[in-house]
Specification:
The chain is an alpha+beta fold and 668 residues long. The chain is 45% helix and 16% strand. A six-stranded antiparallel β-sheet has the order 2-3-1-9-8-10. Strand 2 and strand 3 form a beta hairpin. Helix 8 packs across helix 26, helix 12 packs across helix 31 and helix 30 runs antiparallel to helix 31. The longest helix has 26 residues.
Length: 668
């Protein structure tokens, strides 16, 4: 994993400043501390830079990027291609010559041989890359199928500027930093519109998409092209197979995904919570490895949220080395600001901080790579919101009383998460109802707090949102082609994958807090071959009765503890601040530090009076636990917004990037 950056000028005779490219690499030094490089040939009006985290091909002379190939292609890559050895051997047998042992080199070779569309079909892994083709005078910006790796871009009057993080783009001297009002609203309600950020004019390449930017006569022609999506079969086209077909198929594809991700030129460990996802990854990885693995677990200081006992049981069963990081109020809230600098968006729960601290511990013991369990709930319908939608919309022919009883049991067993993973009140959005057929339960907790969130926005900005509906904005980005004639459970999972997976799980719960400490996380469940097989599993097998992830449980039951095999899904969250006086005091102190009335009035983002009201509600004995969970999220978001304002609006990121390059000794 690495960091990439680049500039594409509308005038090919306009030189790209070398030091600017170096600075853009330096400000994301945490993504790639092992080496840096830049490439900006004369007469092309394009330049790229790269900060490298060495994992495959540790020879820095060979692996250094960007690659400049035959004076025709410039290429920079962040991520991993797990099938690179197979691709390299195949191309070598056809006569293609390779100069490195890096997985990155397969892309320019494939592109030269087959073009971009066929190249993408070959790639298996997580990636974000830029490739400039001199012959067609075209820049390609490409992001992996699920959005595991980030890629941001903006357009000025005469340049396209891109990078692995928002701060990279904002460090360019011609890019202005400004909080977008609609982006601000979405920061407060957690769920983002796909492709957007909190910052005006700063966009993301969406998962499974690429930008094809062709330059002609001093102008850019920009095509946004989707090359992959999560394609559940239409209701009448899903194959009818035996239970064993799906169980053995999941096992086969998951084992292959795990084994591919164990390939590295450095040691590989595993993240381990007490959930079935990370436990089965550790179990399969241990069975595939000739030597004991190392596992890393987060321990919370609340028995209601801590899963350490099951993690210990799992670690003992495979005889792995087990690192446990215990986190309390001080560690979580003292590192809140640092976390926001890296996530570049707000967080609703300090789990993001916990994961940043965990990746720091991984690097402290000299590991760079871990396998993780992210993506399993998305493929196999693990989240409680999926069961709720199944019980409400997807059980044709079942006794209504039975469905009602299952729903009541679901609510009773997930009281800790009402207001976050489950809605505290039913909420419907006409725009989503029209597009999806119903308002997915996964979005209801966040869209349901829209009125409170709007009151939190500074009064000078509220008028801009008078006719804005966040649910409609999200619905407009969903592709009807992949919703039409699908089962309600398919639709619920699709909506989560397009919103919460990329915008939350893989961002502030994934890449950004992992790479903050120069550590690569590899989510085996998000192997696209496994995902494509998982779409075939009938909804009634993904959720069998009221049991979630039925097929996965059966596929891996031999490598997980029996306790876990029988256990209901438990959402992985850090204890909210209202559950602990020490945490509440720490959160209030941070709000006082970053969101004082004077600071709020200067920033003109958050309404001071309504913030005071929200804090009073949180301290009232009349406030329900579900409302407190929701309010805790809103207060975390307010704090995050003000920290974003401090670091990205008030600071000069161009100067920060330059100073970082100087301190590292990175120069032209």
């Amino acid at each position: 994993m690495c960091g990439i950056a680049g500039i594409f000028n509308a005038n090919k005779n306009e030189s790209i400043d070398s030091q600017t490219l170096v600075n853009m690499a330096a400000i994301q030094h945490h993504r790639g501390p092992d080496n840096f490089g830049y490439c900006n040939p004369d007469g092309l009006g394009v330049g790229m830079s790269h900060s490298r985290l060495s994992i495959i091909d540790l020879n820095e002379k060979r692996g250094k990027q960007p690659f400049y190939i035959n004076n025709q292609l410039i290429y920079a890559h962040n991520g991993e291609f797990y099938n690179f050895q197979n691709i390299r051997a195949d191309l070598s047998a056809q006569g293609h010559q390779f100069k490195t042992k890096s997985d990155s080199e397969v892309v320019p070779k494939l592109f030269s041989a087959f073009g971009m569309e066929k190249t993408l079909a070959y790639l298996r892994g997580e990636f974000a890359f830029s490739l400039y083709d001199k012959q067609s005078d075209t820049l390609y910006l490409v992001r992996d199928r699920f959005g595991i790796k980030p890629l941001y871009w903006t357009q000025t009057d005469d340049e396209i500027i891109f990078g692995s993080e928002v701060k990279v783009v904002l460090s360019h001297p011609r890019v202005n930093a400004e909080i977008d009002t609609e982006g601000l609203f979405h920061q407060l309600i957690q769920v983002m519109v796909p492709g957007t950020t909190a910052f005006k004019g700063i966009n993301q390449i969406e998962p499974g998409h690429m930008l094809k930017i062709t330059r002609a006569n001093g102008q850019f022609h920009i095509d946004t092209i989707k090359y992959w999506d999560m394609n559940f079969p239409e209701n009448t086209l899903r194959p009818k197979k035996s239970d064993e077909f799906y169980i053995s198929g999941v096992r086969k594809h998951l084992i292959e995904a795990v084994q591919l991700r164990l390939n590295a030129d450095v040691p590989v460990g595993c993240y381990l919570s007490g959930g079935i996802d990370s436990c089965c990854i550790l179990g399969l990885a241990s069975s595939s490895s000739q030597t004991p693995l190392k596992a890393f677990t987060i321990a919370f200081d609340s028995n209601e949220y801590d899963e350490t006992p099951i993690a210990k049981e799992m670690a003992d069963s495979v005889e792995c080395e087990h690192e446990i990081l215990s986190l309390d109020a001080d560690l979580l809230y003292d590192n809140f600001e640092r976390t926001i600098w890296h996530t570049e968006r707000t967080i609703y729960n300090t789990l993001a901080v916990a994961k940043l601290m965990m990746s720091q511990q991984v690097r402290h013991v000299n590991y760079k790579v871990v396998l993780t369990g992210e993506g399993s709930d998305e493929l196999f319908a693990g989240y409680p919101a999926f069961r709720k939608d199944m019980f409400l919309h997807g059980l044709d022919g079942i006794d209504p009383q039975q469905a009602k009883e299952w729903q009541q049991t679901l609510e009773a067993n997930n009281t800790l998460f009402q207001g976050a993973m489950l809605p505290k009140d039913e909420y419907t959005c006409p725009g989503l109802n029209d597009k999806v057929g119903f308002t997915p339960s996964c979005l209801q907790p966040w869209l349901g707090c829209r009125d409170v969130a709007k009151k939190l926005i500074h009064k000078e900005r509220q008028a801009e949102l008078k006719h804005y509906d966040p649910g409609v904005a999200i619905a407009d980005k969903l592709d009807s082609q992949f919703l039409h004639n699908r089962h309600p459970l398919d639709k619920a999972q699709y909506v989560w994958i397009k919103t919460m997976l990329e915008g939350q799980i893989l961002t502030w719960g994934g890449d950004r807090v992992d790479m903050a400490n120069s550590m690569e996380a590899r989510p085996a469940f998000l192997d696209h071959k496994l995902a494509e097989f998982a779409t075939l599993i009938p909804p009634e097998m993904r959720i069998k009765g009221n049991r979630e992830k039925h097929v996965l449980r059966e596929a891996v039951k031999g490598v997980i503890p029996e306790t876990l095999y029988n256990r209901e899904k438990f959402a992985f969250m850090a204890p909210p601040a209202h559950t602990d006086q020490d945490k509440w005091k720490k959160l209030k102190a941070l709000i006082a530090k970053y969101a004082s009335p004077e600071q709020l009035e200067e920033a003109k983002l958050i309404d001071s009076e309504y913030l005071d009201h929200l804090i009073s509600r949180q301290e009232s004995q009349d406030t329900t636990d579900a409302e407190k969970i929701q309010n805790d999220a809103l207060l975390n978001h307010v704090l995050g917004i003000m920290i974003l304002h401090k670091h990205f609006i008030m600071n000069n990121l161009t100067e920060i990037a330059y100073d970082k390059a100087r301190s590292l000794g990175w120069s032209v």
